[in-house]
């Protein structure tokens, strides 16, 4: 049986979502603030609505995907009655914003699920695309068939509507830290005229091993126990300082490796040199206090 789903917001991502719903056989109504963006979807079989209110009127499931939660709220506020509907908001923002919007939607008689899409628009609908959801579990289950059309690797994280945004932040933070380290390394290599792909090939086992290192780091952090028999922080320090010196000698920006070296140096100075690298989580935690 097909559901009736409405998509509010037809930017790059909203259009990809509506396309995935249509290709999944769902009756899909679409609306966008700026007219014209619905045309290609209407040509594929979507129903174009003249207003957000018209788009929401006949929908069981309302999917919002715009630039930020304030924009999502303003669209929902203009959409008339939300009573009895399930609102799935896939707009990026902080976990606190997601919780605020969830409470606002629930006060209007609807159920709320927040989703965080961890892929680019062209990969929407792919079986390996990761999506995090949190909020009203019964609402998620009721519409899981439609929501799983967004990405095959969808995880429902629990009743906190902020959880999906937080997991998204955790993923992005991990990604940017890794990419910055890699691109600094690429600058270093290319300063010597070395092709970066040659490094990726030669170091592939180490690079794969880096990903395999994360579960043990996660366990140490979760337990709050940082003692390790080998690979302690103090052994990272000379290499981190070498990277700063090498960068300086080559005229490469030193800010990123210098930050790493200083984090390690401070932990060693504080008497944690024999601990695992995971000890640095305490430094990040202290920064929030
Ligand atoms: N693109 C991706 O690959 C990707 C990946 C992961 C997550 N996301 C997230 O998906 C969301 C949408 O991104 P996008 O890439 O589709 O952006 P986009 O192509 O720039 O489109 C932005 C959408 O937001 C709407 N919008 C912005 N401000 C609005 C307002 N005040 N009131 C009503 N509508 C408003 C725009 O409407 P108009 O057409 O009228 O301007 C448009 O539909 C963002 O939260 C983004 O971070 C995107």
Shape: elongated
Distance between the termini: 52 Å
Q: Gyration radius, to the nearest Å?
A: 23 Å
| Residues in helices, as a percent range | 40-55%
List of distinct ligands in this structure: NADP nicotinamide-adenine-dinucleotide phosphate
According to DSSP, the number of beta strands is 8
Say what oligomer this is: single chain
Task: Kindly report the spatial arrangement of strands forming the biggest sheet.
Answer: 3-2-1-4-5-6-7-8
CATH-assigned homologous superfamily of the largest domain: NAD(P)-binding Rossmann-like Domain
CATH topology of the largest domain: Rossmann fold
Spans of at least 5 consecutive residues whose pLDDT stays below 50 are none
CATH architecture verdict of the largest domain:
3-Layer(aba) Sandwich
Helices, by number, come to 13
CATH C-level category of the largest domain: Alpha Beta
- Number of folding domains? 2
The ordered H/E elements are: EHEHEHEHEHEEHHEHHHHHH
Question: Topology of this structure?
Answer:
Elements: E1 4-8, H1 12-23, E2 27-31, H2 39-43, E3 47-48, H3 52-57, E4 61-64, H4 69-77, E5 86-89, H5 95-107, E6 111-117, E7 130-135, H6 137-142, H7 144-147, E8 153-156, H8 163-190, H9 196-202, H10 204-223, H11 233-249, H12 255-272, H13 280-287
Parallel strand pairs: 1-2, 1-4, 2-3, 4-5, 5-6, 7-8
Antiparallel strand pairs: 6-7
The chain binds NADP nicotinamide-adenine-dinucleotide phosphate (NAP).
